[in-house]
Amino acid sequence: MHYTFDIERGNFADAGQASSSVKRTLKQLGVAPANIRRAVVALFEAEINAVAHAYGGTIDVDIDGSKIVMVVADQGPGIPDLDAAMQEGWSTASAKVREMGYGAGMGLPNIKKNTDDLKIDTKVGVGTTVTMTIYLA
Amino acid sequence: MTVKEIIEKLQLQCLNEANLDAEVTGAYASDLLSDVMGNARSGQVWITMQTHKNVTAIASLRDLAAVVIVRGGMPDQDMLDHAKDEDVCILVSQDPTFQVCGKLYEILK
C-alpha cells in the first residue's frame, strides 16, 4: 500500500495529519501497537522538522506485510552538520518554533530511537530526504 | 482512577469532554513537545502550558487519556476544534504545573 502527503512550509496547524492518517491505516491493518507507536513518533518528528525548517516537501509511506517505509523529502536548507544534528539538544529552530515547545533538539534522536533503519541524505541548499524503516516481524 | 474522577478531585474545568471513563495510568509533565512524543505513555494525562493544535495532535497520536492545561491557560479555537475531531479530553487547572503534579501524584501513586 502506498500513501503520499504534501508538506507545506510553516503550516504547523496541519502538522500531524499524515501521522494520524498512517496511524489509522496501521490500526486497521492490525499492526502491533508498539510498532504503530514507533512509526507515529518517527513520522511526526520528521513531519515537524520539514514544516519547521524546509520550504515544502512530500511524505511517501509504503506498507507491506513485513515493513513500513516512510520517506520524508523536503526542498530546504539541508543539514550542514548531520553528526551535530543527531545529538540530543542540538537545534537550529527559530524563536517562534521554540515558543511552541519545539526546538529541544530531540526530533532526530526520537526518530533514530524509534526506527530500525534510518537513512538521511542531505545537501546544503538543496534539501533533505529522511528514509525511515520499521520491520514488523 | 478515571479521567472523570480526576476532574472532580482536582476541580478541573473540562473544555472538551472525551474519554471520561478512561483509566488514567499516570501523568507526564512537559512543555517540550518532542519530550512528550518520545517519552509519554498511552493512558497518561499530559500536564502542560502549551495551548496550540499540535498538543491535541500529540495527545491523539500517543493515546493520552487527557491534557491538563495549567495556570488557567486557554487553548486556541484551532486546538479545541481539533480536540473535538480527535476525541481528546481537554482540561484546565487554575494551579501552576508544580501544584497540579503534586495533587495528581498524591492520587495516582
Give structural attributes:
heterodimer; A: 137 residues; alpha+beta; Heat Shock Protein 90; 5 helices; globular; B: 109 residues; alpha/beta; Udp-n-acetylmuramoylalanyl-d-glutamate--2,6- Diaminopimelate Ligase, Chain: A, domain 1; 5 strands
Briefly characterize the structure.
The complex is a heterodimer of chains A (137) and B (109). Chain A is of the alpha+beta class.
Structure write-up:
The complex is a heterodimer of chains A (137) and B (109). In chain A, 36% of the residues lie in helices and 28% in strands. Chain A has 137 residues and is α+β, with helices and mostly antiparallel strands. Chain A has a single domain, classed as Histidine kinase-like ATPase, C-terminal domain (Heat Shock Protein 90). In chain A, β2 and β3 form a beta hairpin. Chain A starts with a strand and ends with a strand. The mean pLDDT of chain A is 95. With 109 residues, chain B is an alpha/beta fold. Chain B has one domain: Udp-n-acetylmuramoylalanyl-d-glutamate--2,6- Diaminopimelate Ligase, Chain: A, domain 1, CATH 3.40.1390. Chain B is built from five helices and five strands; from the N terminus they run αββαβαβαβα. In chain B, α3 links the parallel β3 and β4. In chain B, α3 runs parallel beside α4. Chains A and B meet through α1, α2 and α5 of A and α2 and α3 of B.
Residues in helix, % of chain A: 25-40%
Q: Could you give the order of strands across the largest sheet of chain A?
A: 1-2-3-5-4
Q: What is the radius of gyration of chain A computed over CA atoms, rounded to a whole number of angstroms?
A: 14 Å
DSSP strand count of chain B: 5
What structural category characterises the helix and strand content of chain A? alpha+beta
Number of strands of chain A: 5
Q: Based on Cα principal axes, name the global outline of chain B.
A: globular
Give the topology, please:
The complex is a heterodimer of chains A (137) and B (109).
Chain A lengths: L1 E6 L9 H12 L4 H21 L3 E7 L3 E9 L6 H4 L9 H5 L7 H8 L2 E7 L3 E9 L2
Antiparallel strand pairs in A: 1-2, 2-3, 3-5, 4-5
Helix pairs in contact in A: 1-2, 2-5
Chain B lengths: L2 H8 L2 E4 L9 E4 L3 H7 L4 E5 L4 H9 L4 E4 L7 H10 L3 E3 L4 H12 L1
Parallel strand pairs in B: 2-3, 3-4, 4-5
Antiparallel strand pairs in B: 1-5
Helix pairs in contact in B: 3-4
